[in-house]
## 1
Amino acid sequence: MKGLNTTVLVIILCTSQILAQSRGIYIEFEEVQDIYSLLKEQASAIPKEKASVLGLIKEQGPWVNHYTYEYINGKSAFRFLNSNVQHLSDYIAQLRNFEEEKIYLIAAKDTTLGYVDTVECHEWQLVPGETKNIAGYECKKAIFKNSVVWYAEDIPIPDGPGKPWCGLPGMILMCEYSPYHSMTAKRVETRNNIIIEFPKNTKPFPSVRKGVNWKTSDN
C-alpha cells in the first residue's frame, strides 16, 4: 500500500508539473496618449494658422488604444487591437520566440507574412525602494533612457508590451514613455488554451523605419 501511495504521489506531482508548463499568461493593456497636453506644452513651436487645431484635439480627448499579450511555453504574442502608433500601424501583432531570441511582426495586409528580427536586451537602471501595485501585482521600477517601467517579479517573463523588452527579471506591466504617454496592464490572468504559431513566410525587418528605431526608441 505504501508503494502504491508513493506511485500516486509521483503521478500527481508529474501531472502538476505538466499543467504548470502548459499554463499561459493573458494580459490586457491600455495605452493612453494625451496629445493635447503635449502639443500645448509645445504651443510656441506651432504655427499660428494651425493653433486652432489644439481646440479640436482637446475636444477629442486622449487617444486610448487597447492591446492583448499572451505567453505560453517560451512564446509570446502582443496584438495591436486598435493601434495609432505610426511606426507599427502596418502590423497587427508582434510574436516572440524566447528560445531563439527572435521576434516576428505580422503584417496587417498579409497575416501569413512575418518580418523577423532579433531581440536586443536593454541596459536597465534599477530603482530600489519604489513599488507600485498594478493589476494586483507588486511591481518594481526600472529606467531605460527616457522610459520608466514597472515590472512584476511574480510573473517571471523577461518581456513587456509594445516593444521586445528584455533584461528584467519579470514582466513589465506598465510603461511610462513620457508624462503624456503610458501603457498599463488592466487585467492579468492564467489561461490554458493559448496557441501561438510563428509564420512560415518571413522576411528580414529593417531596424530603422521612417527614421525611428522601433526596438529602442523612447516612445
## 2
Amino acid sequence: MLTGYLISYSAVVGTVSGFMVGWIANRYESESRLLLHTSIATTLSIAALMYAPTLYGVVVFLTPLGISNAITRVCVTNLTLERGRGQETGALLGLGASVLSIARMLAPALGGIMQEVHMSGPAMLGAVCAVASVVLLLIVPQDNRTPALGESPVTRNPSASTAISANDAKLSNLGGKVQEERTETASLDTSRRSVKSE
C-alpha cells in the first residue's frame, strides 16, 4: 500500500509540474540547455533516493525527480518537433515512441535482475543511465547541430543572421554608389564627345 501511495505522489508531482513547464522554459534561451539541467537534476535525485534514510527523505527526493521527468518529456518532444521538417516529424515522433516503449519493456526486467544482485541495484542502474544521458548531452551539444535538409545554417543563430543582413545592406549601398559613379562618368564622356564634335 505504501508503494502505491509513493507512486501516486510521484504522478501528482509530475502532473502539477506540467503546468510549470512553460514558466520554467521561458527562463531558458535554449531548450537543449534546459534538457541538460533536468537530466542532471534527475541523476542527483536518483542518487539521493538510494541513500534516503527515512520515508520522509524518499518523499522529498521524489519531488525533484517528478518535476525533472515532466520537464524532460516536454523538452524531448519539442526538440523532436523542432528537428523534424515536413514528413520527418511523424517518423521522428514514431521512432521516439517506439524507443520509449522498448525502454519501458526492458526496464522492469533489468531492474529485477539488478535487485537480485543488490537492494539498491535498480536505483544504481537508473543513476548510471542518467549519468550516461548527461555525458551524451555534453559530448554532443544540441545547440551546435547540423542544419536539417533545406534549412539555412543561420536559422538558429539570430545574431549571425542579423550580421549577414547588415553586410548585405552595406554591399547593396556600395553597389548603388558604384553605379551612380559609372553613370556620372558616362555622362561626362558623352559631354566631352559632344564638345569635341562641335
## 3
Amino acid sequence: MIDSLRAAARGIDENDSRIGSVVNLLSEVSERTGVSCLFIHHSRKPVEGAFDLRATVRGSGAIFDACGAVYGIFAGTKAGDARRVVQLKSPSDAGAPMLEPFELELADVGSGQSPNAGARVSFRKLEQVDADIESRDKFDRDVRKLLTEVRRSPGITLAKLVPVLGIRKARVHELIKCLVDEGNLSQIEGKNHAHEYRVIT
C-alpha cells in the first residue's frame, strides 16, 4: 500500500496527465509479480450537479483512467459517523458486478491504561445502516410523544401514559427509564405507590 500517490510521484503535479504513468508503472509491477498495488489519494470536495465519477478523484483524470479499480471512502456529516465505501470503478476484465456500497464503523479499543490503544473496524451493509437509522428515528419520535403528554399532564403515571401514547407498556417503561437517567424526567412516588412523572425544565 502506498500512502499517498502524490508523495510517491514526486516532481509530477497531480493535475498533470503524466501522473497517470506512475499508476501504469504500478499496474505493470502488479501484473509481473501477482501482487496488488493499492494507493491512497484524496478526493475532491463534492460539487453539486456533478455526475462524472472521474471528478471524484482529485487531480488529472488520467489517475482515474489508469486505475484498475477505484473506491471512494466518504466521511459522515458528524464526528464519529461511519465511513461509507463506494466502488467508483471496476476492472474492465472483472466478471463480477461492482460492489454494493457499505459502511465501515471505527471505534477506539482500550488496553490497560490507554483508552485508544487499538481500533475496531466494523463492516455494515447499508440495509443494516438504514435499519439502525429508522430505529433511532422511531425512538426519538416516541420520546417526543411521551414528553408532550407529560408536559400536558404533570404527575401522570405509567398506567395512564400507555393508552394515551398507544405504545406497549415495556416500551414506555424503557423510554421513561432513559429520560429519568438523562435527567429529563423526575419520578416521585404518588398515590397507591404509583410513580408520577414530570418534565424537568
## 4
Amino acid sequence: MVACCSPPHPPPALPWARSSAQLWKTLLRLHDGRELTAVPLHLPADRAIGKGVPAVNAEPEFTRPFTAERAILQRERRTDVPGWLWAAASLVVLACSVALVASLALGVGRLNRSLQGEPAPHEPARPARASARASVMRWPGARASRVS
C-alpha cells in the first residue's frame, strides 16, 4: 500500500512551547484485521537516538509506503539493551501492579466490614453494651447493698 497525502493544517501555536509541529509525531494509521501499519507524515529530528535520526517532513505532495506502526512509534527504542534488564523491569512493574491491586482489595474489604458493623480481623470483638445495673463492678467478698 502507498499513501499520498497533503500536510495537515498546523496546530495553533502555544506560547509556552516551541512550534508543536517540531515536537509531535504525525502518522496516518491503517488498521486491517490484526495488522497495524502507518505512514509517517512528520517525525521530528532526534539527535539523542543513536547517531541522530533526521526529521521526516511533510512535503506538499509525497508518496511513501505503509510500514509497521511499531517501527515508527518506537524509533527511539534501543536494541542493544540486555534481555535480563527488560525482564527485571517488567517484574518490577508487575510487582507494583499486584501491590496496588492487593492494597485496593484490602481497603475495600475493610470498608465493607466497617459498614456492616463487623470488626476488622485484627481487632477484638466489642462486647454488647450492658444495662447500667449490670455494669456496676463489685469487689470480691463485698456485700451488695440496696440503695433506696
